[in-house]
Amino acid sequence: MNKLISLTVVAASIIGVAAAQGAKKAPAKAPTSIACAVMTKNSVDIAKATKSKMFADYKGKRYFFCCAGCPEAFKANPAKYAKAPSIATPKSTKK
């Protein structure tokens, strides 16, 4: 009887460790929208802004814009908007 209890405890321990190792967190999904770097109350769809080149890269970060006037304001004084929401500048896929 003691052997059966011991085997059950060992098996349960092994199963518990295996389950804990298999329960890894899924990687965080990339955001699909972000606040405009200049007009922060306006939301910008990242895919659409990327396609229409409504973004600017500054010091390793990419900032997105909601309208045609925002890139001019940003480029005139990027340090002023550097604390705005941004993503890391994507790595180039060109070879």
Protein architecture, described:
This protein is α+β, with helices and mostly antiparallel strands and 95 residues long. It has a domain of 56 residues. Strands 3-4-5 form a 3-stranded antiparallel sheet. Strands 1-2 form a two-stranded antiparallel sheet. Strand 1 and strand 2 form a beta hairpin. The model has no long low-confidence stretch (mean pLDDT 83).
What would a concise description of this structure say?
With 95 residues, this protein is α+β, with helices and mostly antiparallel strands.
- Total strands: the figure is 5
Helix content: 40-55%
For the sheet with most strands, the description reads: 3 strands, antiparallel
- The helix/strand order is HEEHEEHHE
Give the count of helical stretches.
4
Low-confidence stretches: none
What average pLDDT do the residues reach?
83
List the topology elements.
Layout: H1 2-22, E1 33-35, E2 43-45, H2 46-51, E3 55-58, E4 61-64, H3 69-76, H4 78-81, E5 87-88
Antiparallel strand pairs: 1-2, 3-4, 4-5
List its salient traits.
95 residues; alpha+beta; 4 helices; 5 strands
